[in-house]
Design goal:
Elements (H helix, E strand, L loop, with lengths): L24 E3 H5 L8 E14 L5 E11 L4 E3 L1 H9 L9 H16 L4 E5 L14 E2 L29 E14 L6 E13 L3 H9 L8 H16 L3 E8 L5 E8 L14
Parallel strand pairs: 6-7
Antiparallel strand pairs: 1-4, 2-3, 2-10, 3-5, 7-8, 8-9, 9-10
Length: 273
Amino acid sequence: MHQKDIPLGKTSSYVEEYTPSLLFPIPRAQGRGKMAMPPFRGFDLWRAYELTFLAPNGLPQCYMASIKVPCTSPYIVESKSLKLYLGSFSQTMFNGPDEVSSVISQDLNQLLNTEVKVKLYELNSSSMPLVDTSDLILENDPSLADVKFKTFEVDSSLLRLANKKENISETVSTNLFRSRCPVTAQPDYATVTISYSGEKIDHASLLAYLVSYRRHQGFHEQCCEMIFTDLINICKCDELTVSCSFTRRGGIDINPVRSNAHSFDEPKRTPRQ
């Protein structure tokens, strides 16, 4: 498939019979460009909330699903194509959730040339619970009351270390992150969580930097990798994990995580998700 065939931003027909050819891969290299990225590990965690198919007796079944793609995969899946693909299960009969997860895994493994982990969840409050965060929310810091935010195009020069030199380990978040789709220019919203150890980062400068993505057009995965790269290169973090929990579009949310830490958790499901 060629880039001109990408379904994002185009009028699409909604197919109701299982059609794996609806899936569209995008090379990761396209978003990374010439960015000199430091080493990292991580994954992209996709959560789908509108997965439905038919049982052998014709009774509709409804599930949620998680799809975990390693960041080392040569491709990502284009988000609208995944929505259309999952929608194509709606009038197809399967023997149960295990068969459905196996089919999705096989199709995405082949498309992305990697090992994708797929899990289906029952529709109850404990299957995929919301998690309240106890992290420091940058925009709630009283010391930022008089700070002026004027930059809305990505500017890594905004980042700086705190005036008081000290080595710490901390986790901070912001709910104010906004970027734009590189194809449609539609806004994407996220909670960004940054866990790091090393010399303390000035909170006002960090929030100003994250706010500067407000008009940036980039895929979710690219934004996460840019943030990780800038923090490593400029702030020299000893250990760093960046999680970007984007709100859902088309019944799917995307949560890229990039880290050089020895261990790190899957991103929390935020109240907006």
